[in-house]
Amino acid sequence: YVQDPGDYYYSEAYFRMLTLITVLQQDCRIRYNPELIAEPSIENLSTPFTSDSRDVFLHGLATGKRMGTCASMPILYLVVGRLLNYPLKLAASKGHLYLRWEDEREAINLEASGRGLAVYPDEKYRNWPFPITQTELSKNFFLKSMSPEEELTVFLENRATILAAQGNWKEFFDVYGRVLELAPNHPLALNNQRYAIQQARKAGTAAVIHTPDGPAITWASKPEDLPKAMPAEPVWGDLIEIIHARQSVPSDNLIPVPVMPNPYQRPNLTIPLPTSNHLNSYNHYSQPIQRGMFQ
Question: What is the DSSP pairing of strand 206-211 with strand 107-110?
Fold first, then answer.
């Protein structure tokens, strides 16, 4: 690097991370699972992209075929880099993880889930792999260096991906409850809890019932185990109040749907179905082409 810094875009951080990633990919055979490479698709947002925990946790990169995804590869590079005292942070866009190098000389984004290493500006991740809305951005979770608590939510979300593939919606719901404890302003956690309840109700393993204390969620391992109680309506309004009361999340995280005092009165409400927050694979390899993006 000292002899030819221009070959590395005059960035020592880029040189160091390129060397680290080259060793792990070429010498240790770390790579993205080719069976999961696909272009981002809105249609796939509500479908778990894998049911194999090896695709989202480090044991898949440390054993067997040593394959992973953008849910696990940045974590491996983060761990090795921190062992080398590199100032690395984890960051997220919508449906994707990447790294940030931050020190007194430079702060750059590092894209290393594909072959080699690329550097993209924040504007790239604002719209890739999925557009981030202004409301989601205002929650101060995406496109920034994560705190240790926020990093933990990433591992919980990876676990939730596998639980969703297994149809374990009760535990999926509970995992996102823990996410909200760690990151109350998480932009998608409440939406994913609603999604879990919706899917569990379709499967007959959850119901919203009316009790003397108000509406409540009840879960069962199979439909015949659900308690025989009169359902509460309107469903989404009740759930919003339940989640808000039990988790004390900020009110601006809630969809403003009125809750009717009579649980059997059906108002004419058009409520959009929730979307999920599963990580998605991708196939986009690129290298930085200008030095100015490091400024």
Answer: unpaired
pLDDT, tens digit (0-9, with 9 covering 90-100), for 186-244: 999 999 999 999 999 999 999 877 777 777 888 988 888 887 655 555 444 445 555 55
pTM above 0.90, yes or no: no
Say how far apart CA 83 and CA 77 lie, in whole Å: 10
